[in-house]
Amino acid sequence: MVLSAPPRSTSPRSTSVRRLTKSTAPKPRRRIRSASRMDAFAPYMYIAPFFALFAVFGLFPTVFTFYVALFDWNPIGGQTFIGFENFVTLYGDERFWNAMRNTFSIWILSTVPQLLLALFLAQLLNNARLKFANLFRMTMLVPYITSVVATTIVFASLFGRDYGLINSFLNLFGIESIDFAANTFASHIMVSTMVLWRWFGYNTLIYLAALQAIPKDVYEAAAIDGAGGFKQFIFVTIPSLRPVIIFTVIVSTIGGLQIFTEPLLLSSPGLTGGAGRQFQTLSLFMYEQGFGDFKFGYGSAIGVTLFALIVVFSVINYLLSRRITSDE
Amino acid sequence: MSAKKIARTVIAGGAALALLAGCSGGGDTDGKITLDVWTFGGMGLDEAFATYQEENPDIILKVTNAGGSDEQAQALTTALAGGKGPDVAAIEVGYMSQFKAQPQNFVDLRTLGADDIEGTYLDWRWSQGVAADGSVVGIPTDVGGLAMAYRTDLFEAAGLPTDRDEVSALWPTWDDFIDVGAQYREATGKGMIDNVNSAIFNPAVRQGDEMYYGSSDDDLVYDSNPDVKEAFEYALDAIDADITSRTPSWSEAWNAGMNNGDFAVLAAPSWMMTYISQQAPDTAGKWDIAAVPENAGNWGGSQLTIPAKSDHPEEAFAFIEWLMSPERQLEIFQAHGNFPSTPELYETPDIQNFTSEFFSDAPVGPIYANSVESIQPIFEGPQQRIIDTAILNSLSQVENGEEPAADAWSTAMKNVKTALGG
Fold it and tell me: Of the residues A263, A326, B186, B269, which has the maximum number of CB atoms within 10 A of its CB?
C-alpha cells in the first residue's frame, strides 16, 4: 500500500526542490531558507483548523465519554465514581442485547439489498445508450439530500397499519394488514427500507464512478472471448469493482451500526423504539439512557461499547480487504 | 480535578468557542431586562406573552418554543448540565419528578414569595412542583382534568344512549366502562376506545392517593400498591373484552381515527378539546363529553420553573405570578381550552356557564372542574416516568398481541426492575 512506504520517496524529492530553487534564484540565501521553512510549515497550518475543531468536537468528547462511563452520572445532579460497574450491569442487561440484535438485523436488512440495488442501478446508468444520463444520475441523490425527518414521516404513513398504502396494496391480494410498527421483524423491514432509501443513491454514484474507470478494452477482450453481458458483469465488472465494493461495505458497516434517526422518529413519543423495544438500536438505547433517563454514565458505557464494536468491525474489514486486494 | 470541574472547564471552552462564533447571550440593553422563556407547543400562552410585553415595556420577553414537551425537557437537561439555563422554563408534569429530584438546579420559589400564592392553586397540582426537601421548584400552569369525549353519532348507531348524563350514568366504575365497550363491539364490530393506556390505565392509576412511590424517594411501592395492580387488571380486562381499536395516541392513525370514527371514546383532558377540533374539524357537533369512571382524573399540565442560573429571578417570578394568575388562566382557557388550576374560578359563572360548541354545547366547565377537585396529591419520585414507561409498554405489547396477557404483570415488574437498575 502507498501509505506504508513514505520515507524512500521524500529524500529525492527534497533534493530536486533544492536544486531547482538554487538554479532559479542563487543570491539571497537567507530569504530562501526562511521561505522553505514556511513551505514546510504551511501544510500544517492549512490542515490545522480541521484538527483543532476535531480535537474539540471529536477527540475530546470521545475521550471524555470513556471517563464518564466510570461514573454514576446524573447530568443535572451528582456524580459518583463506580469503576466498571456500568459495564458489568450493561453486559447483563437484556435491553442491551436486544438493541444489539436489532442493530445487526437492521444493518444486514438495509445494507445487503442496498448495495445490490446500487450495483444494479450503476450498471444501468453506465449504459452508453442511456438518454438523459446526467438527469438520472442526479436524481439518484435526491433521497440522500432530502431531510430524514420528511422521509421518515412519509414512510411511516406508507407503512401505517390502518391507512398505509403498503397494507392497502397487500389487502388487494387478500393478505391481511401487517402492523409494521408492532411486530419485531416487520418493524426491522420498515426501518431498513428507510435506511436503504436514504443511502442507495450515494452508493450508486460511487459504483458508477468506479465502473467508468474500467478500461473499455477489457470488455472488448472479454467479448472476443465470447463472454456475454452477464458473464462480462461477473468476470470483468465485479472483480474490477472489488476495492470499491469493500469501501462501500466498510462505510455502510460503520453507518449501519449507528442507525439512530429513523428509529428515534418512529419511536416518538418515547425513546424505547416501540413498546417492546422491537426496533431500538444501540444508538437509540444510548440516547434513551443518557438523555431520557438521566443516566449519563450508563449511556456512556453503551457509547464506549459501540465504539469498541465499530473499531473491531473496521479492523476485520481492513484485514479482509487487504487480503482480497493482495490476492489479485 | 473533580468530574464537575472538568465538566465546567469543557463548558467554558465551549462557551468561548460560541463567543468566537459570534453568538452572544441575552445582554441587557438600555436598562431593559431580557427574560429568556422556554416553552413548548400547545401551552396556549402566545396571546398572554403579547399582553405582558405590551404592559411591561421595560422587559423584553425572548420566547423559545422547543417543539414538544420531550424536546423541551431534553433541551433543558442539556442547558442545566452545562451550567446554563433560561430565566423561565416550562416543564411538563411527566418530567417534573425527574427535574425536581435535583432542586439545586432551580431557584427555590419560596425565597421569592411562592408561599403567598400557594393557596391560589389546587393543592395536589401545587405539590407536583414541590421537591422532596420542601423547596418549591415550579408554579403550576393549567390542569388537564379528565372527561370521556364520545361520538354521539357512533353511540346512536350502536344502540347506546347519547345524552351526556345518561352516558355518564352508564359507567360509574371501570368494570361498567368495559361492559359498555363490549356492547359497542357486539353492535358495531369496532373497538370503542383508542387504546388502553390513555383511556384506562392512565386515568385509573391516578385515582388513588399513591402511585409508584409511597412518601419518599426511596419508598418504591409500584409492585405492592394494589391501585397499580388494579388499574393494570382493568387494562387487561379491556383488552380481553376486545374494546380497544389499538390506536396509539399521537400517531397518524389516531388523528385519522378521530375523523373516521375508528373509535368512539377518547380520554379527553381539557386541552384535548382544542386538539380534537383541529384534527377532526369535520366532526364538529358529533362529539359530547361525559364523566370519567370513578369521576376523577387528570392528564397533563406543566410547571413554570426558574433555573438557578437566571440573572433576573425576581422579574421572572413576577412574570410567572402574573401569567398564572386566575384572571390570566381564565383568558387562556377561554381561548385555548387549557383548564385553570386555580379553584376560586370554578364556581364563577365564567366556568359554570362555559360550554363548547364543538362538543354539542356540552357544559365543559363544570365537568372538568368536577374531575380535578377530588384528586388526591400523589408523591412522585425521581424515577416516576421510567416506571410509568415500562408498565405502559408492557400493556401495549399485550394490546398488540405481541405478548400473552397471563405474563403481562410479571413482565412489567421485571422490566421496571431492569429499568431502575440500569
Answer: A263
